[in-house]
Amino acid sequence: MIAFLYAGQGSQKVGMGKDFYDNSTDFKNIFDEVRNEAGFDLEEICFEDKEGRINNTRYTQACLAAFAAGVTKLLNKAGISPDYLAGLSLGEYSALHAAGLMDEKELVKLVGFRGAAMQEAANGLDTKMSAILGLSGEDIKPVLEEINKKYEEENKERESKGEMLLSVEISNFNCKGQVVISGASKLVTEAEEKLKEAGAKRCVALKVSSAFHTSYMAPASKKLEEYFNDSKKGLLVDERSLEKPVLFNAIADEKQDRKISDLLIAQVKKAVRMEQTIVKLKDLGVDTIVEIGPGKTLAGFVKKTVEGIKVYSIDSYADYENVVKEMAS
User: Fold this and answer.
1) Which of 182, 209, 236 is the last residue of a domain?
2) Boundaries of each Malonyl-CoA:ACP transacylase (MAT) domain copy (predicted)?
3) Deepest in the core among 111, 133, 206, 273, taking most CB within 10 A?
4) Final residue of a domain: which of 168, 188, 209?
5) Residues 250, 114 share a domain
6) Which of 141, 146, 130, 271 is nearest to 192 (CA)?
7) Of 89, 130, 182, 209, which residue is the catalytic one?
8) Phi and psi (nearest 5°) for 144?
9) Positive or negative, the Cα torsion across 38, 44, 50, 56?
């Protein structure tokens, strides 16, 4: 069985999609169709980014979603169809698009709204995200709890003044031996030092613009909730159905009797369970994963987490041609 796995923020890079755009009319048409929904020049930011905006979540999300929609269209046209779908953070929205929940325009409009809401929630906050290599979530949790406890009194004073509260949280379980922590910059730095003492091999800062998938994104989750209940300007996702099964970040499983909107609202402020999702795909019988998005980060996660799954990464048009050649044979 085949699964499509969509990359999230952090995978973006200048030049992404340019070779697809130049070689495929179908891919180019996707960019042309969603330009109005993006609200900015997709091609300029994806291909050149002269103003250095690609890492600002307001722009990142629509750029990555447009790229993923274009690649998905090409794969479908080539007769390559997934049995399961999943994505990392933002990539979950591309998975839902591929599952038939929304079209390209609705996808780009939605993630553009999400990106703007997340950037607004991030404005004025001194936060960061860091990937901790070599420790498990169970190793990391007590260290973060100790640090957060240390700042309880200061947070009471900050709350009385209406200032940003200080916390550090787990935001991503990426794969075996890689967990992302996020929060107030000062606390993340303190946690990095303590986790190195506890045996972490490395701590790597992520190229994102805030502490995503933490309580700092609560204002963004509230705005998403409003969007999913707005029949005129938003998207009533709970009134639609999935044509293919999607594994959701918040639970590393299919939605079952849960509302899609609730899972997406929770996802923006709670930890992404990618490691558990990869294990679940393996348990479901998936033996081939196609990673869609710039880079090969998710392929690395799969290889570090489970054995016996063939992984293809589509970062370039040449990658796409290779996947079609190998999977069609």
Assistant:
1) 209
2) 5-320
3) 111
4) 209
5) yes
6) 130
7) 89
8) -70, -40
9) positive
**Any idea which residue has 């690395």 for tokens?**
300
The alpha-helical segments, DSSP class H, found in 162-206 are 185-197
Catalytic residue among 213, 221, 261, 313: 213
**Hunting for tokens 């348990």 — which residue is that?**
283
Please check whether residue 302 is in contact with residue 311, taking contact to mean a CB–CB distance below 8 angstroms: yes
Instruction: Note the pTM of the prediction, 2 decimals.
Output: 0.92
Q: Which residue is listed with tokens 């990539």?
A: 91
CA atoms within 13 A on the CB side of 179: 22
Instruction: Return d(Cα 328, Cα 306) in angstroms, integer.
Output: 25
213 is catalytic: yes
Helices then strands, counting H and E runs in the chain, come out as: 14, 9
Angle at 187 between CA 9 and CA 216, to 5 degrees: 50
Instruction: Say if residue 200's pLDDT is above 90.
Output: yes
Q: Are residues 89 and 134 in the same domain?
A: no
Are both 143 and 262 inside the same structural domain? Answer: no
